[in-house]
Amino acid sequence: MNEFAKLVPELVVADLAASQAFWCDLIGFQVAFARPEDGFLYLDLDGAQVMLEQFEEGADHWLTGALSPPYGRGINFQIEVAALQPILQRLAAAAWSLFRPVEEGWYRRDRVELGQRQFLVQDPDGYLLRLAEDLGERPV
Question: What is the rounded CA–CA span in Å between residue 136 and residue 116?
Fold first, then answer.
């Protein structure tokens, strides 16, 4: 990891070891640094960064309301990757279900459409990840 991203979500998770296995072993993130005494991991995948924090009852978490599973309701994270296939293979080998199958998506930006091959998968706490491989652009 060369530098910190300007926006890094910090996700509260129920089981840090399970989350680390998903984010690192299946998706491909690396641990940039950890604070085991705080139940904290900072992860990086080619500049896409996320922090994971183990939920502990009574701890001083920055929560705005009651936390109940699945934690990830109402949010999804788009993560651009160089290639989807290795991730899909790891997920299949782990028998991890996809939330939405692989599809090609085109999204208008002014006079062009930006394309990506994408799929959606939930982490152990229900956080929704949209993994995307760039397909370039085309005129509208």
Answer: 7
